[in-house]
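pasting for the record
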Amino acid sequence: MTVHCFTSISLNYLAKARVLGATLKKFHPDWVMTLCVTDQEPDGFVFDISKEPFDRVLWTESLFGDETLRWIFQHDVVEICTAVKGPVLKALTETNADYIFYLDPDTAVFDSLEPLLDVLERDSIVLTPHQLTPEDEEVAIIDNEICSLAFGTYNLGFVGIRNDAEGKKFAKWWSDRLIKYCIDDRASGLFVDQKWCDLVPALFDRVRILRDPGYNVASWNLSNRKVHIDETGKISVNGAPLRFFHFTKLGPVGDTMTQKYARGNTEVYELWSWYKRQVDTNNEASLPAGWWHYGTFSNGVAIPKTARRLYRDRLDLRREFVDPFDASGFYSWLVADGQI
């Protein structure tokens, strides 16, 4: 039995991915961990896989070849790091993997994930909903239930499949949709990768909606999940083992939402304090703050979202400017046309 896990980052998320890799390997040293990187190394930094808690690194260029630059340019950093999840999942179905799991890089594993294999012995696809319990307070209904209607019922910071016919069918479908439609366009009903998976229970067989409170714990469900740490250090959520915690929005936003819903559950703050220390320990000094190679034209000018959307919407521009990052090409055209 072979289990593959993967996550997706730009290099400014490397410290978080290292925490994920280390915590996963603590419980599952034999699981194969792949890091997908949609970025390029800045001067002074070299990614050395032998020093990392990952078994494989997959650079986006290996997925898209000559189309890589044109495809990346059409997305901002959030869109692209979610868009690659489908193609990587599909690529891993072509390996010897029996089971494949995706975990967001800002996740930490706190207990064995072996029960997921039991789930996938019976089913082919497993998803975790944002909420498991109806909210009672108006503010929580707005923050959590209405947000789920807008951003998707399931949190795609986690997804798992068995590498059987139905799992492969889902992986191909999700890959096809994310290659073309993984954008943040809520007016059109799209929110990167997540909204697509609202369709999964209708389109596929053997889909498990995992309602165990110990999976994908995060600020958006703390109103109904009580975290407890016993005298031995064992962590539980509503009496079930904490499997993994999704530390989304590290910083002021995450702190605000956590305080809003954890309230007096002090163990949640202990987990956040531990996570912040782990990320600080794994930070890479040679990586510039906020680094993303694909965030600027070759002349260093930041790429506005309007330019990415224009390039995505116009086939003639994609044909004319094969490397849209080259400032002597698409950038010069944008300036001459008064677009920027």
